[in-house]
Amino acid sequence: MAPTTRPEPRARRRTWLVLAGAAIGAALALSLSVTPALASTSIDLLGTFSMVAVTNGASYAQTWHITSENEQTGAFSGTDVGPTIETFTGVLDGRSFTSTGSQPGYDWHGVGTVSGVAGTLKVSGTFTDSNGATGKFSSSQTSAPATQEITGPVAASAPAAREVSGPVPAGPPGNADISTIASALPTPAQAFASTATVAAGVGLSLGAILLITFPSQLFNLTFQENYAEIREWGRRRLQWLQRKRERPDERPDPEPEAERGPERSWLGFAGVVLIGALAGSLLNPHFGLTTATLYGYVAVVLAICAGAAVPAVVTRLYLQTRHAETSWRPHALPAGLAVAAACVLISRLSSFEPGYLYGVLAGVAFSAKPSAKHKGHIVALSALTTITIAALAWFAWIPVSGAAKDGGSFFGLVVLDDFLASMFVSGLVGSAIGLLPLCFLPGWDLHHWHRGAWLLCFALAMFGVIEVLLIPHNDSHSNVPLVTTIILMVVFGGASIGLREWFASRRRHAEGRDKVAFRQRVHELLTPAEALAAEAHVQPAESAD
């Protein structure tokens, strides 16, 4: 008997050390955002604020004098001096606040955020008034009492409450050129404002994993067992497209993809990236012929390219350590455009901001053919690296966002603000979708190699999406996106079960077994077709005995 070959222990240890290091790095990058968010401080709002309010294209200079504040309840009040003088009241909760002002025949309601330290506080947000107008405001503190304030997101006495992560859909505060991907993104302090919010995110993530894992297994079984029939069904439905592609008078014989010239590969790469970035720009409800749309489009293009570069670099380094072939070519993923379009549609219908920015539209194809185990290694390392870089981009975005919000900021700063936010959002969304354990996604390779490694990577990605993007962190963001996502997961589970039962009922009908007990139906639903065929052969033999 020929001896079986096993991987060298040193190589196996090295692989696991690298995976463990990458996992620790990703976990630290996310946990670092939790630590400062759980700090507790109070904010002293007393003082004078020089303010500019913008509505219907007109700007109005005003001055806020905050004269009283209750640090226990967060209530504050003062006067608003502008064309008229009016009183206002508000409630500060962490670094978010609501405010209401009134005078005879007129009142307004605002929501916003507070940033900075005592003496240099900045207040910004949006408002609506009794005339039906909406607008935005931004202000800087010009004088304050001689009190010291420690920077931090949540007052010690404040309840575990949601905080404003960005403006309401009326527009971003301070700088209208910032896209909603950046303006609606919460900071780490806001996303992890309380242990209750983090616990909710963990619980929802675990529930999402359970909702996805079991239906995915059924979907994979159904897809693999009936692949030929499903492919034939798709071919018939798209026959008109196939006829168009195969017209001899219009197209030459198709070349193998590996033999296409680099120009065609790069052209396809660029085309998919540019079209995908356009889809990503449509996440902005204010999409149009504006500088904000242009800056956001450029930022998404850069984010998609950076997102394609990360797994390419990881794969190349891994192949080099294995002394494998590292030649490569750009590879477009046109099917990703359909996913990106679906993400935009779901985001817009549910008023989800910053939205599902899906950037896995292009990549790099290597000539090497790694084994199933090595594919799992590459997917795990790529996913953990992507999540880590996304988290680092999130941290880098914080100071850039503060500077970009000032009116008249340099356009490069605005593009950088949008780029870092897009890197974070697309990194999380792309990782969560790509790690789904479906047989045509990278998550299948990782799940097939090691379920524990897959669970770690997928849990990190899902927690980031749910905790940071889906859970509302201010009163202007609703639970609709979160509920919509849960509904989609339930629909996927139901569709997976229904599709498998449909194929099973066809098989039973062909075998003349139309009436089957419920327990047998469940058994056939969960059992691969090969195992059922083996059982069918065993049962007659047992009956003969």
Describe the SSE topology.
Layout: H1 9-37, E1 47-55, E2 58-69, E3 75-81, E4 85-93, E5 96-103, E6 106-115, E7 122-129, E8 134-143, H2 180-183, H3 188-191, H4 195-225, H5 227-237, H6 239-245, H7 262-281, H8 291-321, E9 328-332, H9 335-349, E10 362-366, H10 372-404, H11 411-434, H12 442-449, H13 451-470, H14 480-510, H15 518-526, H16 529-544
Antiparallel strand pairs: 1-2, 1-8, 2-3, 3-4, 4-5, 5-6, 6-7, 7-8, 9-10
Please tell me about this protein's structure.
The structure is a single chain. By secondary structure, this protein is an alpha+beta fold. The chain has helices at residues 9-37, 180-183, 188-191, 195-225, 227-237, 239-245, 262-281, 291-321, 335-349, 372-404, 411-434, 442-449, 451-470, 480-510, 518-526, 529-544, and strands spanning 47-55, 58-69, 75-81, 85-93, 96-103, 106-115, 122-129, 134-143, 328-332, 362-366. It is built from 16 helices and ten strands. The strands form two sheets. An eight-stranded antiparallel barrel has the order 1-2-3-4-5-6-7-8. The chain is 54% helix and 15% strand. It is elongated, with a radius of gyration of 28 Å. Helix 10 runs antiparallel to helix 11 (411-434). Among the domains are: 47-174, Quinohemoprotein amine dehydrogenase alpha subunit, domain 2 (Lipocalin); 264-470, no CATH class. The model is unreliable at 1-8, 30-41, 146-174, 248-254 and 541-545 (pLDDT under 50). Strand 2 and strand 3 (75-81) form a beta hairpin.
